[in-house]
Amino acid sequence: MPQSSNIDDTLMRRGMSNLSLSSSKTMSTHSSFQRSSFHITIPAESFSLSMVEESIRNAESIISKWGFDSPSINKVTSLFHCHNREEAKVFLQTVKGLRQSMHLLLSEHSASHKLVTAQNLMQVAMKRLEKELYQILSAYRDQLDPESVSGRLSGGSSNGSSSFEGEDEIVFEEESKISGNRNTKSEKFKGVALSDLKAIVDCMISCGYGEECVKIYKVVRKSVLDEGLYLLEIEQFRSSKIQKKNWEDLECMINNWVHAVNIALKTLFNAEKILSDHVFSASQRIRECCFFEITKEGAMNLLKFPELVAKSKKLPERIFPLMELYEALFDHMPDIELIFSSESTLSVKLQAHSSLVRLGESVRSILSEFESTIHKDSSKTPVRGGGIHPLTRTVMSYISSLADYSTVLSNILTDSPSQCRTQLPESYFDSPTSEDNDLTPAVSLHLAWLILVLLCKVDKKSEIYKDVSLSYLFLVNNLHFIVNKVCSTRLKVLLGQDWVIKHANKVKQYALNYETHAWNKVISTLPVRTSEELSVEVAKSCFQRFNAAFEEAYRKQTSWIVGDRKLRDDLKVSIEKKIVTAYREFYDIYLVKMSGARNLEGLVRICPDDLENYLSDLFHGDSFSSTGSTCPSPR
């Protein structure tokens, strides 16, 4: 079979139409045919002019039958119809023989009038094959669907060989052999169509009609590809249109793109490449250029969409659809590299890489802006009862959602410069312990950084409270919320157990500081346990001071809040251990000794059981207790 470089030369325009029998035009035919044909060296002694002329006469009887000027029904009948398969075989072999005869005439009798006849016959044959090619492509545009093409051809050799093996021996197999083990009639026809396409294309290219062949193929197959993209709802994307879209509509477009890109690449474009490689296996350059011309518009439009979206307004909530776009495109980069692997399709790969880079930049920009938003939060209004600040809820919800995209973020953040941390302790950024060794430290460090920025802001907001104990309760609530959020999400894997333990201990320290400032005055009214007994007067004074201190602390804290039930119960238990236990012991000893004192009820207004009830009503954020009782006042 001729070399690919010789086949490629046949794409040159032939300029051999409307030839006459004049010697000057015969020489023109000679010159043009030399530009578009293969060069075959034939020994002089083996050449017989009469044999060549006889071959041309035989070819004329076969080819003219299928010419468009023929009065027979053949001008509207397909040469490759199932009933004409043997005749199609003869037709292609005749064209091959005609081409060889023309070569022989050129080499020995270039002035022969038979060369003009042969050229005219070749043009008739090519017009018929052009029509046959268009008919098969059109008739089987739905049957030559991507799944059928990829399933039938992807397992074959790289040169796309079909049941028609080689130029010198075109074999039309019976339908049963073509279909192999496939039992359906449809599969049989698809196999025949693929074989016919390759046979026609090989014949046209070898005869110098590759340009006409490629033109017909591109028109039909591009329409098939465009239809497939249309069914996937891939519209023509324009920057101005994308920028004008409201976010809800744009998000729907993003979701559709993420779904469609998988089908478009793995089914539509991949199958189109397989089919082009098969049909145009005779020429690498032709099949690469043909595939690019068919797919470039659709592929460039599909792959520029993420870049256009990345240019839209950068708001914190938009980062998640952007990361989904990034993930989908990143995951399909190997497919893009494989499908568009030729030099002619370089622009498609560059567009895919450009979109990926722009998405990464957009995500990093949003993260930076989000961090800046935390820094800039300047609300001075204290949260009622020292509860959880809205900023804490918002930021932790956002960061925990970011953690769900940790794999995507690792790709985006790994090569980006680290955030400035000069104002915060570097020990905070030690690599967190993680059981997932596949995750890069960049994600963990970045999310830990954002949480630390939040903690610093929370610490600053605690200074708004004039009551020190309430400011510590505020820190308890907010840090406990942050730790719980970490433990209940993927953040725990990213930040590690050491981070959790470290910050859980901080919660305990803040809680201890709260108890100290809130209840030490109450505890200090009770005598320190000693071997010496107190006098009745001293005991009375202790009861009076305890009543006053407890009433003040209780009334102040009835509006304070601890939203987490377990944290609330833990705080109450700790307070009860320190106050109720000491008070019960004091109460049991000195109430008996004071049994004869005047106004005993006024002196001892709270019994230990009542004290437990009062404490149980704390941290619900109500001005009154949940039982409806209030702290007793002096009578």
UniProtKB/TrEMBL annotation:
Spans annotated as Disordered:
146-167
Q: Does the keyword Transport apply?
A: yes
* InterPro entries per record: Cullin_repeat-like_dom_sf, Exo70, Exo70_C
The biological process GO terms on file are: exocytosis; protein transport
Q: Which GO terms describe its molecular function?
A: phosphatidylinositol-4,5-bisphosphate binding
Mind listing the UniProt keywords for this protein, alphabetically? Exocytosis, Protein transport, Transport
Annotated ranges, domain Exocyst complex subunit Exo70 C-terminal: 256-617
Question: Key word Transport present in the record?
Answer: yes
Q: Which GO terms describe its cellular component?
A: exocyst
Please give the SUPFAM superfamilies that the UniProt record associates with this protein. Answer: Cullin repeat-like (SSF74788)
Protein family per UniProt: Belongs to the EXO70 family.
General function of this protein: Component of the exocyst complex.
Full protein name: Exocyst subunit Exo70 family protein
Question: From which source organism is this entry?
Answer: Erythroxylum novogranatense
